Protein backbone atom coordinates (compact mmCIF):
# COMPACT_ATOMS: atom_id res chain seq x y z
CA UNK A 1 0.00 0.00 0.00
CA UNK A 2 1.42 3.35 -1.01
CA UNK A 3 1.57 6.21 1.46
CA UNK A 4 1.42 9.96 0.91
CA UNK A 5 3.36 12.61 2.79
CA UNK A 6 1.14 14.46 5.29
CA UNK A 7 1.84 17.79 3.59
CA UNK A 8 0.74 16.37 0.23
CA UNK A 9 -2.51 15.11 1.72
CA UNK A 10 -3.19 18.48 3.35
CA UNK A 11 -2.52 20.32 0.07
CA UNK A 12 -4.88 18.02 -1.83
CA UNK A 13 -7.62 18.50 0.78
CA UNK A 14 -7.23 22.27 0.63
CA UNK A 15 -7.52 22.20 -3.17
CA UNK A 16 -10.68 20.06 -2.98
CA UNK A 17 -12.26 22.33 -0.37
CA UNK A 18 -11.44 25.41 -2.45
CA UNK A 19 -13.07 23.76 -5.48
CA UNK A 20 -16.20 22.92 -3.48
CA UNK A 21 -16.38 26.50 -2.22
CA UNK A 22 -16.14 27.79 -5.77
CA UNK A 23 -12.81 29.53 -5.39
CA UNK A 24 -9.47 28.73 -6.96
CA UNK A 25 -6.60 27.88 -4.69
CA UNK A 26 -4.03 30.64 -5.20
CA UNK A 27 -0.38 29.53 -5.09
CA UNK A 28 0.94 30.32 -1.64
CA UNK A 29 4.27 30.25 0.07
CA UNK A 30 6.03 31.93 2.94
CA UNK A 31 8.04 35.06 3.60
CA UNK A 32 10.97 34.02 5.81
CA UNK A 33 12.19 36.36 8.54
CA UNK A 34 15.75 35.26 7.91
CA UNK A 35 16.18 34.45 11.61
CA UNK A 36 16.41 30.70 12.09
CA UNK A 37 14.93 30.64 15.59
CA UNK A 38 11.78 32.36 14.29
CA UNK A 39 11.44 30.62 10.93
CA UNK A 40 11.83 27.14 12.41
CA UNK A 41 8.68 27.47 14.53
CA UNK A 42 6.54 28.77 11.66
CA UNK A 43 4.91 26.24 9.31
CA UNK A 44 6.69 26.40 5.97
CA UNK A 45 9.65 28.26 7.44
CA UNK A 46 8.21 31.77 7.38
CA UNK A 47 5.19 34.04 7.48
CA UNK A 48 2.41 32.57 5.35
CA UNK A 49 1.50 34.47 2.20
CA UNK A 50 -2.14 34.67 1.25
CA UNK A 51 -3.09 34.92 4.92
CA UNK A 52 -4.09 37.38 7.62
CA UNK A 53 -1.73 38.08 10.51
CA UNK A 54 -2.38 40.11 13.66
CA UNK A 55 0.16 42.42 15.28
CA UNK A 56 -0.20 44.46 18.48
CA UNK A 57 1.97 46.34 20.92
CA UNK A 58 2.84 44.54 24.13
CA UNK A 59 1.27 47.32 26.19
CA UNK A 60 -1.20 50.10 25.69
CA UNK A 61 1.44 52.81 25.35
CA UNK A 62 2.68 54.62 22.26
CA UNK A 63 6.15 53.07 22.45
CA UNK A 64 4.98 49.48 22.08
CA UNK A 65 2.37 50.59 19.55
CA UNK A 66 5.10 52.16 17.44
CA UNK A 67 7.18 48.99 17.71
CA UNK A 68 4.23 46.96 16.39
CA UNK A 69 3.85 49.32 13.42
CA UNK A 70 7.57 49.09 12.64
CA UNK A 71 7.43 45.30 12.85
CA UNK A 72 4.62 45.34 10.28
CA UNK A 73 6.58 47.79 8.13
CA UNK A 74 9.59 45.47 8.17
CA UNK A 75 7.45 42.59 6.91
CA UNK A 76 6.06 44.79 4.14
CA UNK A 77 9.58 45.95 3.26
CA UNK A 78 10.77 42.39 2.66
CA UNK A 79 7.77 41.51 0.49
CA UNK A 80 7.67 42.59 -3.15
CA UNK A 81 4.98 44.77 -4.67
CA UNK A 82 2.99 47.80 -3.59
CA UNK A 83 1.71 48.21 -0.04
CA UNK A 84 -1.71 49.54 0.96
CA UNK A 85 -1.78 50.98 4.50
CA UNK A 86 -5.25 51.76 5.89
CA UNK A 87 -5.71 54.15 8.82
CA UNK A 88 -8.55 55.99 10.54
CA UNK A 89 -6.27 58.56 12.17
CA UNK A 90 -3.69 60.68 10.30
CA UNK A 91 -1.02 60.15 12.96
CA UNK A 92 1.18 57.54 11.29
CA UNK A 93 4.78 58.84 11.11
CA UNK A 94 5.74 57.72 7.61
CA UNK A 95 9.49 58.58 7.84
CA UNK A 96 9.82 55.97 10.61
CA UNK A 97 8.56 53.30 8.21
CA UNK A 98 11.36 54.24 5.81
CA UNK A 99 13.87 53.55 8.59
CA UNK A 100 12.33 50.05 8.83
CA UNK A 101 13.05 49.50 5.13
CA UNK A 102 9.65 50.42 3.68
CA UNK A 103 10.33 52.89 0.86
CA UNK A 104 7.82 55.73 0.63
CA UNK A 105 7.31 55.15 -3.10
CA UNK A 106 5.94 51.67 -2.41
CA UNK A 107 3.22 52.72 0.04
CA UNK A 108 -0.28 54.00 -0.71
CA UNK A 109 -1.93 55.40 2.42
CA UNK A 110 -5.72 55.21 2.66
CA UNK A 111 -7.49 57.25 5.35
CA UNK A 112 -10.95 55.90 6.19
CA UNK A 113 -13.71 57.65 8.10
CA UNK A 114 -14.26 54.85 10.62
CA UNK A 115 -13.32 51.25 11.30
CA UNK A 116 -16.32 49.84 9.46
CA UNK A 117 -15.19 51.61 6.30
CA UNK A 118 -11.60 50.59 6.94
CA UNK A 119 -12.46 46.90 7.21
CA UNK A 120 -14.46 47.08 3.97
CA UNK A 121 -11.57 48.78 2.14
CA UNK A 122 -9.04 46.42 3.76
CA UNK A 123 -10.98 43.43 2.44
CA UNK A 124 -11.15 44.86 -1.08
CA UNK A 125 -7.43 45.60 -1.05
CA UNK A 126 -6.60 42.05 0.02
CA UNK A 127 -8.46 40.71 -3.00
CA UNK A 128 -6.00 42.44 -5.35
CA UNK A 129 -3.33 39.95 -6.50
CA UNK A 130 -0.94 42.71 -7.59
CA UNK A 131 -0.24 43.88 -4.04
CA UNK A 132 2.54 42.65 -1.83
CA UNK A 133 0.99 43.52 1.53
CA UNK A 134 -2.15 45.23 2.82
CA UNK A 135 -2.00 46.72 6.32
CA UNK A 136 -5.04 47.81 8.31
CA UNK A 137 -4.89 49.62 11.67
CA UNK A 138 -7.90 48.46 13.68
CA UNK A 139 -8.98 48.47 17.32
CA UNK A 140 -11.59 45.72 17.14
CA UNK A 141 -11.52 42.63 14.95
CA UNK A 142 -14.39 40.18 15.19
CA UNK A 143 -14.27 36.57 14.07
CA UNK A 144 -16.59 37.40 11.17
CA UNK A 145 -14.50 40.35 9.99
CA UNK A 146 -11.24 38.45 10.34
CA UNK A 147 -12.68 35.50 8.44
CA UNK A 148 -13.62 37.76 5.54
CA UNK A 149 -10.11 39.23 5.54
CA UNK A 150 -8.53 35.78 5.68
CA UNK A 151 -10.61 34.55 2.72
CA UNK A 152 -9.76 37.69 0.74
CA UNK A 153 -6.05 37.14 1.36
CA UNK A 154 -6.31 33.48 0.36
CA UNK A 155 -7.99 34.44 -2.92
CA UNK A 156 -5.12 36.68 -4.01
CA UNK A 157 -2.02 35.45 -2.22
CA UNK A 158 -1.54 38.88 -0.62
CA UNK A 159 -0.27 39.15 2.95
CA UNK A 160 -2.71 40.90 5.28
CA UNK A 161 -1.47 42.58 8.46
CA UNK A 162 -4.03 43.73 11.02
CA UNK A 163 -2.17 46.15 13.30
CA UNK A 164 -4.24 46.50 16.46
CA UNK A 165 -4.38 50.05 17.84
CA UNK A 166 -6.46 51.08 20.82
CA UNK A 167 -7.57 54.53 21.93
CA UNK A 168 -8.80 53.25 25.29
CA UNK A 169 -7.45 50.53 27.54
CA UNK A 170 -10.81 48.74 27.54
CA UNK A 171 -10.48 48.12 23.80
CA UNK A 172 -7.27 46.13 24.36
CA UNK A 173 -9.25 43.26 25.89
CA UNK A 174 -10.56 42.50 22.40
CA UNK A 175 -7.08 41.24 21.44
CA UNK A 176 -7.66 38.13 23.53
CA UNK A 177 -10.74 37.13 21.56
CA UNK A 178 -10.38 34.42 18.88
CA UNK A 179 -10.02 35.46 15.24
CA UNK A 180 -9.34 33.72 11.93
CA UNK A 181 -5.82 35.17 11.66
CA UNK A 182 -3.09 32.67 10.83
CA UNK A 183 -0.64 34.16 13.33
CA UNK A 184 -0.92 36.60 16.21
CA UNK A 185 2.10 38.64 17.36
CA UNK A 186 2.75 40.97 20.27
CA UNK A 187 5.71 43.37 20.15
CA UNK A 188 7.27 45.07 23.19
CA UNK A 189 10.16 47.52 23.21
CA UNK A 190 13.21 46.51 25.25
CA UNK A 191 16.31 48.49 26.26
CA UNK A 192 18.54 49.04 23.23
CA UNK A 193 21.69 47.08 22.55
CA UNK A 194 24.64 48.17 24.72
CA UNK A 195 27.47 50.03 23.02
CA UNK A 196 31.17 50.17 23.95
CA UNK A 197 30.94 53.98 23.83
CA UNK A 198 28.22 56.41 24.98
CA UNK A 199 25.23 56.40 22.64
CA UNK A 200 22.01 54.64 21.73
CA UNK A 201 22.32 51.18 20.21
CA UNK A 202 20.00 49.35 17.87
CA UNK A 203 16.53 48.97 19.31
CA UNK A 204 15.49 45.61 20.72
CA UNK A 205 12.09 44.00 20.82
CA UNK A 206 10.43 41.13 22.61
CA UNK A 207 8.42 39.31 19.95
CA UNK A 208 5.69 37.05 21.28
CA UNK A 209 4.18 34.64 18.78
CA UNK A 210 0.96 34.13 20.70
CA UNK A 211 -0.79 32.01 18.11
CA UNK A 212 0.34 30.13 15.02
CA UNK A 213 -2.10 27.95 13.13
CA UNK A 214 -0.63 24.43 12.86
CA UNK A 215 2.49 25.73 14.57
CA UNK A 216 3.89 26.61 17.97
CA UNK A 217 3.86 29.69 20.18
CA UNK A 218 7.19 31.18 21.20
CA UNK A 219 9.00 34.27 22.49
CA UNK A 220 11.98 35.91 20.79
CA UNK A 221 14.35 38.69 21.79
CA UNK A 222 15.46 40.38 18.57
CA UNK A 223 17.09 43.52 17.28
CA UNK A 224 14.56 45.77 15.55
CA UNK A 225 14.21 46.05 11.78
CA UNK A 226 17.16 47.55 9.93
CA UNK A 227 16.86 49.70 6.79
CA UNK A 228 16.09 46.55 4.77
CA UNK A 229 13.31 45.40 7.08
CA UNK A 230 15.45 42.61 8.52
CA UNK A 231 15.41 41.43 12.12
CA UNK A 232 18.47 39.97 13.83
CA UNK A 233 19.38 38.13 16.98
CA UNK A 234 21.35 40.29 19.42
CA UNK A 235 25.04 39.45 19.24
CA UNK A 236 25.08 38.32 22.87
CA UNK A 237 22.27 35.85 22.06
CA UNK A 238 23.41 34.70 18.63
CA UNK A 239 25.16 31.57 19.93
CA UNK A 240 24.84 29.08 22.74
CA UNK A 241 22.24 29.06 25.46
CA UNK A 242 21.29 32.67 24.80
CA UNK A 243 19.83 31.76 21.42
CA UNK A 244 17.79 28.97 22.99
CA UNK A 245 16.44 31.34 25.62
CA UNK A 246 15.64 33.95 22.96
CA UNK A 247 13.32 31.54 21.17
CA UNK A 248 11.40 29.83 23.94
CA UNK A 249 8.66 27.57 22.61
CA UNK A 250 5.65 27.82 24.84
CA UNK A 251 2.77 25.75 23.53
CA UNK A 252 1.08 24.22 20.54
CA UNK A 253 -1.52 26.50 18.94
Automatic annotation (TrEMBL):
Residues 233-253 are annotated as: Disordered. Keywords: Plasmid. It comes from the Bacteria. InterPro entries: ImuA, P-loop_NTPase. SUPFAM superfamilies: P-loop containing nucleoside triphosphate hydrolases. This is Damage-inducible protein. The lineage of its organism: Bacteria, Pseudomonadati, Pseudomonadota, Alphaproteobacteria, Hyphomicrobiales.
